[in-house]
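To whoever picks this up:

The nightly regression suite flagged Peptidyl-prolyl cis-trans isomerase as changed. Nothing in the input moved, so I suspect the structure step. Input below, exactly as stored in the fixture:
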Amino acid sequence: MADQKLTLSLDSGGDVVIKLRPDLAPGHVERITELAGEGFYDGVVFHRVIDGFMAQGGDPTGTGMSGSDKPDLKAEFNSEPHTEGTCSMARTQVPDSANSQFFICLADAHFLDGQYTVWGQVESGMEHVHALPKGEPPATPGTIVKATVA
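Regenerated output under the current build:
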């Protein structure tokens, strides 16, 4: 389990390989793994991409207002810093509201430290995350063609 990786195959033709961190957030890693295994993330867009900040996806409606039909997760805030390539769960103002949406930091975002659950780190393919179309939402958003865990 400690060496599990999530691969996001993007429509740009590139793969983003993320090292999962169950040591930091076991419940969140379990959810991401479960959703990826069910094909939940396949075809889902990055609906919010802010240059110099982060790329957010994981909403099946592509609006940023939805999630999976599974119950929301209890926060697993940790001391891992939000640096470039950090993968963390999106949530509402309510700490225990993360569900399926996540974001990948495009740059250091230490103001998020301790307030969002870090669950992974990009090991390769960060250039594909940086290349995602920008916007809230982007005119033509980048899409996760397939998400797999190995």
